[in-house]
Amino acid sequence: MNKFKDFIEIDKKFQNSINLQLDIDNLSKLNSYIPTHSSILVLDGFLNNVLSDRDKANILIGPYGKGKSHLLLVLLALLNDGKGDITKRTINKIEKVSKETAEKIKTIQSSVKPFLPVIISGTEKDLNKEFIIALMESLRKNNLMNVAPESDYGKALEVIAKWKKDFKQVYESFKQIVREYGRTVEEFMGELKEMKEEALNIFKEIHPKLTAGSEFMPMTVNNAMTLYGEINRALESYGYGGIYIIFDEFSKYIEGHEKDTFAYDMKILQDICELANNSKKQQIHITFVAHKSIKEYGNALSSDIVNAFKGVEGRLKEVRFVVSAQNNYELIQHVIKKKVSDCKPWFQEQNNKEIIEESYKIPCFSGLFTEKEYKKIVMEGCFPMLPLTAYALLNISEKVAQNERSIFTFLANDEKGSLINIVENGSEELLSVDVVYDYFQNMFRDSISLTNIHNEWLKADYALTKAESLNEEKIIKAMAILHMINRNEEVPVRKTEIRLATGLNMADFVSSLEKLESKNIVTYRSKLGVYAFKNNVGVNLDNQMNNMIEKQPLSLNWQEEIATVSELDYVLPKKYNQEYTMTRYFKYVYMTPEQFLNTSKSEYLFETYKADGLIICLVMLKDGDVNQIKEHLKELNDNRLVVIYPDKIFGFSEQQNIRKLKAVEKLLKDKDFLEENKVLQQELEIYKEDLIFEINVELEKSYLPENNRCKYFNTLNGVTELCFENQISFNRFLSEICLSYYEHAPKINNELINRKSVSAQIKKARNLIIDAILNEEELNRFEKGTSSEATIFRATLMHTGILKGDSSEEEGCRRIIEEIDAFVGQCAGKKVSFQVLYNKLLGKDFGTRKGVIPIFIAKEIINLQDTPIIYLQNKEVEISSSILNNINERPQEYYLFIEKESIEKEKYLKVLEELFLSEELRKKQKSKMQRLNNIVESMQRWYRSLDQYTLTFTKQLFEENEQGYLEEDAFERMCSFRKVFKGIELNPREVLFEKIPKAICHDNSGDAVFENVTLQIEEIKKYMDNNLVNAKKKTAVQVKSIFGARADESLSACLKNWYSKQSEKSKSHIYAENITGFMTYIEKLTTNDEDEIVSRLCKIITGIYINDWKNDSYERFVEELTYVKNTIQSIKESEQSTEGENKISIKQGKVQSKDSLNLTVTTAQVISFRMQ
Fold it and tell me: Model confidence over 1027-1038: pLDDT tens digits?
């Protein structure tokens, strides 16, 4: 065979990446442009922007090394001149790919004036200054400096030149000062010409020292946006149609920018973008060049930078430079020049032939190329690279390439590790993937932000230190590259793909891979079916694991450990679920034979494991007796149980995997261990995944029917061993179980409501329906629309026929309604727990989902002729959607009672409504379920409005012949009636139909009693309403009697007449508080209202109002009032005796004889007073 260098030529036009600033006038770079469909599509878009005067601010996004800069170089050449020979050749090349684009270029050349190209590199700290410098540089290159306005820098140079010519002494002082700054005048002026900000600042400091304090303030334009606008207008007279700005390497600018000045620079960019978008005849275009959008940086950029960029981002149109995979391979084909005939010896070599043919079967090639295209573009075009080497080069360069290292530099740069270097060094073997690893490995090392790539490099770099042959190194590097690419759907890191990437023959590959495995360098990840690196840095993991395992108990709870890790979780009986439009499921449960045999009732299992059926996987730790299992299953007699009896015991190897898994989980929870061995966390996570996978593989082998390693038992057709070919036949059997056990389940086609637990949103919708039903509102508003409540209403009540209640009723729903009706029948006249109903609806034959039950209950309750009462334990509660929701959650706490209606009860209730209900409540027209509550609530309100005396007295105040007297039997009934309402929380039904009848008639059985109760309540209410009024009347008559007046005389006149007859001495006498108060009140009495007078007298004489009297208050009042009257009348003017009296003299001023006030104090009363 020849050597590659004998017939392969690399097109060196590709050897360097494009630097727009350096290559803008490089015609050879323009000549090396290879048009592809992808690049022409982008170029066409930019040309359209110029022709249609739109989208003048944009950002071109594409991976490194894909030709973005090259494309823009071509664009600038076409827009700047476009009349040279090389430019014409480029247009011809473009025309071969797209005639339309070529025509647009010709239109621009003939009708659009050239654009001045400006390249921004983003290397200056001050972006405003960078834009100005870049514009000045472009003007200089294009001999347009006379267009440029004066800058501060230019003005400074003019001043220095003037000093040198006209002010020699000043100039000499200037030279001396500049030397103090470590510069010569020539160096300083050179810095000003380069527009260095430090030099300008120094000049501004120097200027006042040399000019008697005057500041350097030239009137020049220093704002980039203003400058670009002015120069763009001026360029029109020089034959230019505008300015085209390219901000190259914008991604690097973003990544390396200081956070402090970023917001300021973004304002500059925002202004320039606005200037571009607003430009008209003289267009300004700006294109940013980036390898990814700002959003794709994720957490790599601070939120401050991301937020600051948003103002710019909104003004940019995003243009994606998408290069098709096929175009990429074609690019390689264009770079590597050779004759296919010279390559044939390598294609015919047996191992190479096998590798090339097998490689086409990999999805990355078979999904992209036909076999003919694959041979031409990949096999022949990418020669001497193996197919996967070309694939790796394209994908790795896309992930990590920079300008100094890219697909083009690999192909055409003559440097260590490049294709041209390998060819020139006389290589004779097809290049395997390891050459890609070698070329880019420094970038892998430095790409710390690319976590996956850097981590894979770390593992591979460590693994290479353990490799003992070139073949082992090839395998390690190939694995690393494929894991970095991380596209398992295209190239999984399996044994076959690794071998095709290395180019090794089968024997050498297998031998080397086995050695790497034996040395614990690589490991097979069973879960994913791929090979990966095993990281052994820092600790001997196996020893650590063994130490953890030794500390575990000898016997673990194996069934629980298996259940925790098992991926055999639920099985959905598909046929049944489809037919009944719901989701039932069977749950896998792991038990030892002993646990199963000790289960006395299947209900215990279903209380623990909430499911429609259970698949009990027996965990055999030793040989067992299958007949015992069958016999016990027969005793349990529950068709919902399927028992799986495995042929193989759960032995040491299976137990050891569980132990390893527990050890790994414990290490992952050990913060100190992970802190000391950070590199091991990822390996432990991977190891954990693999252990879980391996355990589940064994479980599937033991318990899935297609593996024929277990026996199935069920009682549906007698306890016989069942045979299933696969999961499909097993699933059909589970549907048969459901059809048998849940035969009459309602078919409701809405899984949002037809389920055990509904979401908060669906519950809210259900509440709207229930409340509308209970309040007897119009339901037609739910019959149309797409709201949750409308769809649920139609699914549960309309489509099932329940709303109409005719023969169209869905069979299962009809039976549910019948069960609810039967339950209601049980509740007539007695409390029955809702648990009774729910046991029936949720149990055998129905298995109703809880979500729909409250709607059906509400509908049946509202249709009752009788009155339903719901109890929470012993307390009556108002029937509402909230209560029905609570019943749904805790049916054992709630009870239903149906109060049978009758004519007598109805009359009784109507009388009570007339007696007690307010006008407001009558107008509300509440439902009958709230009727009882309203009546009792109104009676309670009436009761609480009564005075304390009426509510508490137990001894009649009146004699038989007096108004207000009540027969003793009636009085007892009144007292009993009052007791009913003493409680704070009353159960309305019990109050009305049990407690009141019993209190009044001592009998609450039979409806006939209500006629008598009605009459008695009317009498009692009338008596209690008038009791206080009658008490006041009687008291007034008694007061008149005490003071010597007739019953028909005025009480006010009687008292005032008596008062007028008392001695002056008695009026000035100081008495006890009640006597003094009495005399004061009578003295000032003006009202004739006897009720008011009696109330005040009671308060003054006894200290309590008549409203608050007790049984003996009347007698006490009469006694005290009589005493007061007698005491006052005993004080006479004519009496000379002063025995038992004390005299108090109150002096005013100094003369006692004239200004003294003498008060006589009767010592018979205990008094106290204070004078101020």
Answer: 999 999 999 999
